Amino acid sequence: MLAECSPVILVINCGSSTLKYQLYTTDLKVVTAKGLISKIGEDGSRVEHAAHGSKHVRVMPVPDHHTAFTAMIDRLIDPEVGVIKDISEVTAVGHRAVHGADTFVKSSVINDEVIAKLEECVPLAPLHNPPNLVGIVEARKLLPDVPQVVVFDTAFHQTMPEYAHVYALPYELYSEHRIRRYGFHGTSCRFVNQRAADMLGRPVDELKMVICHLGNGVTIDAIENGRSVDTSIGFATFSGVMMGTRSGDVDPGLIFYLNKQLGMSLGDIEAMLYKRSGLLGVSGISNDMREVEERAEGGCERCELALEMFAYMTRKYIGSYAAALGGLDALVFTAGIGENSPSMRARICEKLGFLGIAIDSDANEAPGDDGRISTRASRTAAMVVPTDEEKMIAIDTLRLTEKARAAAA
């Protein structure tokens, strides 16, 4: 049944065939409801909604995003499974956007000008920005009088110095066509950056930190004094460490070889690098780290190789970023693999003693409230810090909408 009503903040992450949402109280302390609408525009569309400690699932036709948004609102105000009496109780909406290029260096209150500039960024993220824009358009239609904010995954990394984000290509490609390193998972890294500093009890602007966002997508981020100074994913989203299905770093010459010698089209090569590589490609089993680890324990040599490669590539980035930072105060693990795989954390840290990191095996298996998995004698703290991208979006949404209301008063 519906609880006593109070103002709420709605956070939306709209993909090409999915709509994720969370509803926060305005003090951001409680998620009152969350949901996932999947297979939009496909057969077997599902509406999953969790509230009041239980989960409700319904298979129903969801032919388009407008229907998905309507289904979300219906769940939120439903007398049995909802948490608010009327959608007018939503006081602000926060949206995730993948790519803001170098146009957006921080989150922004949405208006027509912001939408136009976001549309200009579509060529840089043709798979991600269009559905993000659809989510914004639909939310503004259904909640026209509610202030809305967009939070960009790329924004956090726009503090990188020019020597770190410019590629060694003809400079005109950068100056005229915006070809440069952008970085992703910035919303996650920004949340973890501040949270790690709080857990260490030190000011964020005094720390040198490497954050390992290890999930189906992987970002290694070098942070100095609270600012991103380098990041492993660059212009596209497959560079850096190998991922669930993405290759990570490869020699660009390989693309020409595959095209000329093996007759693969550019489309075939792109599909291979994005969808058939990484853990899946090497193991031949799965893109899920849990399954790869399980099969490796059972003697699968290719799964063991995939694990060794993943740890090795991650360790190389940690070492290079420690050098770029001129030292290291904290090594932070986050996201699905980073938070939930003690064995992978141990593999990665195995040869990082030169950085002053020694893993406490008991703490690594069950990190305490301070997140530490390194020994107390370690010069550099190794930590597990759970990420919360939705919370970061909600924080920005609350901050910017309150600022806008104060300015208008």
Automatic annotation (TrEMBL):
Site (Transition state stabilizer): residue numbering on this chain: 185, 246
Pathway where this protein functions: Metabolic intermediate biosynthesis; acetyl-CoA biosynthesis; acetyl-CoA from acetate: step 1/2
UniProt cross-references to Gene3D superfamilies, sorted A to Z: 3.30.420.40
Cofactor(s) needed: Mg(2+); Mn(2+)
MF terms (GO), sorted A to Z: acetate kinase activity; ATP binding; magnesium ion binding
Active site: 153 (proton donor/acceptor)
Listed transmembrane segments: none
Positions contributing to ATP binding: 20, 213-217, 288-290, 336-340
Catalytic activity reported: acetate + ATP = acetyl phosphate + ADP
Family: Belongs to the acetokinase family.
Functional summary from the UniProt entry: Catalyzes the formation of acetyl phosphate from acetate and ATP. Can also catalyze the reverse reaction.
Protein name: Acetate kinase
Gene symbol of the encoding locus: ackA
